[in-house]
Amino acid sequence: MTARIVPTNVQRFQRGSPVTTEDLLVAEEPLEIRLGHGPGHDRKETRLSVTMRTPGHDEELALGFLFTEGIITDPDQLVRVEHCTHVKDEERGNVVRAELRPDVDVDPAAWQRNFYTTSSCGVCGKSSIEAVRVRCDKPLVPWGALEPAVITVLPARMRASQTVFKHTGAIHAAALFDRAGELLLLREDIGRHNAVDKVIGAALLQHRPMDASMLLVSGRAGLELVQKCVVAGIPLMSAVGAPSSIAVRLARESGLTLLGFLHEERFNVYSGVT
């Protein structure tokens, strides 16, 4: 398993003078997700996605990605996710194959885009809000009234559990909480969309219902992250940064309660009831 933290030597300037010292960097490596599908006598492999991620929890990342992108609608449609061993040396540990059950119908030609993703922007060329409407026909369970005393403590609880961030200061986090504000799951990744996929994948693997949970993300709330919440059935999403205009639009159309600029004493409500 590739390390999530990598040491390096740096020159640190203090009062104009350089000092050589050791620093810690968050690891960033490509992960290729391959899909095995078709009947038992005619299995096929489709190279589905390459994403830049922080190594670790790759099975959760792949499962969360397949689910939030609508390629599977139930984790039981997946037999397993495992790292590929018959790959080039430089690819070892960075290629996984997700095996669908033989009776799962997929049509690779119907997928509307090339799933090339980066750690900064997520899936490039996403076909916007229309693709989400097609997949999200199950309405969200309304969150209802907010409890500010519960909401405002979430960032501190998330930071307290971020192990990689403490050492590197350069990684995103996604955390799933229950209605009382208790931390259920937390995952870190250099890509905020990967962190969300890992949390959702972990919840699916644990058969944990998400319809009474709230998701907190570091950074901003873009369309990608809001749509992942909607697909997963998470009724409340909060971010320490701002949402985008199209993210707010999707949240309002989907019934998602969306909060932004969440800090210790304040937050903004962009969608949902107060």
Description:
The chain is α/β, with parallel strands linked by helices and 274 residues long. The chain has two domains: 29-130, Ubiquitin-like (UB roll) (Roll); 148-271, 3-Layer(aba) Sandwich (Cytidine Deaminase, domain 2), CATH 3.40.140. Helix content is 26%, strand content 31%. It has helices spanning 58-68, 128-135, 148-151, 154-160, 163-168, 192-205, 223-232, 245-254, and strands at 5-14, 17-26, 29-37, 44-53, 78-83, 95-100, 115-118, 122-123, 172-177, 183-189, 214-217, 236-239, 257-260, 268-271. The protein has a six-stranded mixed β-sheet, with helices on one face. Helix 7 (223-232) links the parallel strand 11 (214-217) and strand 12. The longest helix has 14 residues, at 192-205. The protein is flat. It starts with a strand and ends with a strand. 41% of the residues are buried.
Keywords:
single chain, 274 residues, alpha/beta, Ubiquitin-like (UB roll), Cytidine Deaminase, domain 2, 2 domains, 6-stranded mixed beta sheet, 26% helix, 31% strand, flat
Residue share in helix: 25-40%
Name the shape in a single word: flat
Q: What is the mean pLDDT? A: 86
- Following the backbone from N to C, one meets helices and strands in this order, namely EEEEHEEEEHHHHEEHEHEHEE
Q: Could you say what the CATH architecture of the largest domain is? A: 3-Layer(aba) Sandwich
Number of domains: 2
Strand order of the largest sheet: 5-6-3-4-7-8
The share of residues in extended strands comes to 25-35%
Main β sheet profile:
6 strands, mixed
Q: What structural class is derived from the secondary structure elements?
A: alpha/beta
Number of DSSP-assigned strands? 14
- Determine the N-to-C terminus distance: 45 Å
Unreliably modeled segments:
none
At the fold tier of CATH, the topology name of the largest domain is Cytidine Deaminase, domain 2
CATH C-level class of the largest domain is Alpha Beta
Tell me the radius of gyration. Answer: 19 Å
